[in-house]
Target: AP-3 complex subunit beta
Amino acid sequence: MLESNKDSAKLDAMKRIVGMIAKGKNASELFPAVVKNVASKNIEIKKLVYVYLVRYAEEQQDLALLSISTFQRALKVNSRDPNQLIRASALRVLSSIRVPIIVPIMMLAIKEASADLSPYVRKNAAHAIQKLYSLDPEQKEMLIEIIEKLLKDKSTLVAGSVVMAFEEVCPDRIDLIHKNYRKLCNLLVDVEEWGQVVIIHMLTRYARTQFVSPWRQGDVLEDNEKDFYDSDEEQKEKADKRKRPYAMDPDHRLLIRNTKPLLQSRNAAVVMAVAQLYWHIAPKSEAGIISKSLVRLLRSSREVQYIVLQNIATMSIQRKGMFEPYLKSFYVRSTDATMIKILKLEILTNLANEANISTLLREFQTYVKSQDKQFAAATIQTIGRCATSITEVSDTCLNGLVCLLSNRDEIVVAESVVVIKKLLQMQPMQHGEIIKHMAKLLDSITVPVARASILWLIGENCERVPKIAPDVLRKTAKSFTSEDDLVKLQILNLGAKLYLTNSKQTKLLTQYILNLGKYDQNYDIRDRTRFIRQLIVPNEKSGALSKYAKKIFLAQKPAPLLESPFKDRDHFQLGTLSHTLNTKATGYLELSNWPEVAPDPSVRNVEVIELAKEWTPAGKAKKENPDKKFYSESEEEEDSSESSSDSESESGSESGEDEEDDRSGDSAEDSGESGSEPEAGKGRAATRSRARGRGDSKDVDKEKENSKTSESSSGESSSIEESSSDSESESESESESESRKVTKEKEKKTKQERNPLTKDVSLLDLDDFNLVSTPVALPTPALSPSLIADLEGLNLSATSSVISVSTPVFVPGKTHVLLHRMSGKGLAAHYFFPRQPCIFGDKMVSVQITLNNTTDQKIENIHVGGKKLPMGMQMHVFNPIESLEPAGSITVSMGIDFCDSTQTASFQLCTKDDCFSVNIQPPVGELLLPVAMSEKDFKKEQGMLSGMNETSTTIIAAPQNFASSVILQKIVNVANVGVVPSGQDNIHRFAAKTVHSGSLMLVTVELKEGSTAQLIINTEKTVIGSVLLRELKPVLSQG
Model:
């Protein structure tokens, strides 16, 4: 068909050939027949021939060289083909022939194509630059000249390709970017997606070399540490530098502002590129806006999820707060791939803290039961990491892992053993019973790593289990020859340790094992056997080391450090292949450190300013002025307040309270941008702002409609959904700001009215973008409001019909010093907890403060000044006291919502003349309210709060301390709990609920034979449960 005289037959043949290539079939045999048609006059045939030649030109170089004259003719100025696609294809084919002989021809073709009238041809010239450079790197200088010329190109089609060529050929020539920096920033929105990714990565590197670090505000404390040896003059200089307020370079702000709209791009690579730019060059207060966009990408394909989750895992190590509001988005779904599940686990571990660990442990309990064994094993490792990072739940996690040892699945048991071994290394003295329990499991466990871990534990603690260790050695000696190599090494170590500590019982056993190891097939085991024999069995040939055998084998081993595998990846630029592989890939360009002093910003100024102004039609420019007055202030005012207004609007959008501002911010931002662009782009900015103006007026109409509908509760959800939380308001008129304040207040009222009616959310409800269910009026501790609703929905004790708050059994009269009379200049203050419901709020703990005037003068205007409360904590202060007479005393009441934590509430107690910093830290027992319930209900609730929600310990005390009245008195003295009737004399039960969240706290004291008892606490609030256990144990043990 290719030999036919008819173009239709040739075209049909070429379509079939290209179709074969598309399906992956080899069509290289047809090269001679295809290349004959390269000079065809039919454009369609020529296009397909060029497509074929691009694919096979490198393989059939000799035949391809025959058609070079045709390609040259298509590119030469005199005989240039009128079709831009043919010219571009000719250049592509020419650059695909990888023969050094034609380098001069390629160079000439690229030069001519770079001056072509068609931007598509110029784009292909930029692509050809990279191919020529890889073929002949000596042409670098000539290629740089062409790149410099193409960088000045104003076409958005060329921008991405030429920047890619710049990155490949001369990434260190930053001077080529200076004059084109502002143009690239302004063109960024209109460039194709592939080009956007390339340009953003290049501009990230550029910004790190040309601007001062925007993170300097946080370095004050670090500088103070270095001042010890400095002279007074040097300290003054440093102090002056620190006092100097940080002012962001306008070009730095231009880059951050112009990339922000791309966070809403449909292309995941563009969103990821903008996210890494914000992470590496934006102020930390503004970087939070990328979190929502990254979470949105988790709805994409699993490949995109994998890359995004890897980057989030790296970010969440350094800045947990960015992703805490989206905690539910990282819950594992049953349909997720194993690699996705493990990455989500990693992120959940990084985000774990005292406030959300209870929820996460409940999630982990479910994950352990997964049919995906690799995921279940990773979950057990995650529980171990949580236990090491949050000490309050280490005992809870350890108990939960011990429970898993009775699991039917061998892989779960094996992984639990390995993790328990690591946890026990941190506190081996307290867990002798667990080691004994694990020794019993040795007969049933067959996984080599788990068996080796048990043997190592017994060897390390052989002196604490003197009866069990020799018996374990006897059993393993029988099976030595059939064991895995890893287990054999640990049997040898166990024998050596027992030989040194208990040689009477184990001497013969150890020698028997050493003889078996001497003839083992594995040379590692043979070498270890010889080494151990020479070290522990003294003879004439023994060296000096044998004296120190005990110190070598029984030395204290450092506890393992359970760290995130993503901890060391932060030195790679996010979103790069090197970051994904955690190793430096070929072609990776490292980010430089911020310069101490910013280079001269004038290098970015462009000279052709007046020409751009003159080019703008005068009539159209006049039409722009009314819009400017309507949306924004004058250009001069905007430039002066650019950095401050940006940072203010950014922090507002992050806090989630300026949703109405964000709606109007879309239109204001666009008009503000056109006014604040550099002078070099004023002409183009003016024409673009006119095009935007029509859309802006529509946005304003929408804003008015939305503000009206937001006043009614029925229309609230639609108005919030329409708002863009990522938009940025630069400058607004006074009338707009006033109306917005009114709208905002009304919106807050409707939210507060609707909040009690919020529907409970299930644990796996992953739609955490529904902002309606998230109250924004009050900050919360590390938990997001939607997660609090989630916890309330998951409350395992939601049986209010049988559980009710009762009166306190006992109110201790112990007072705590709030302010000493010496520190308070005669004003003394004490506080105590009356254990009564707080009159200021259901979630507050009542605190009574007694103020004493120990001076001989009247103290006036006693009041509470500034408050420094942790996130989410609230305080209702007492009314100011006008005066307190000499030797006078007065008692006032306060209410504090401690958010179910023992964190300190810090505030200032002020008089007319002075202010004193004081703290109130509640004992954990005062965070509870006593509960009345039956024994049956107690057992039911206790059964539901098992596993990770249970902590226990053994108490040893004299028998007279275990009398019912003594136990009752001791427990109610420590904690505000109610007594639950018990039908058994040896079991005492107490119940309470936490003041803030209403979670049940069940305390059980079970008397055992002799002088021991078991103290068990069941609660969802595992942190409070662990702290209460630690406080009750010494009290019950004392006589």
Notes: Residues 218-229, 609-744, 746-801 have pLDDT under 50 and may be disordered. The radius of gyration is 37 Å. The longest helix spans residues 682-709.
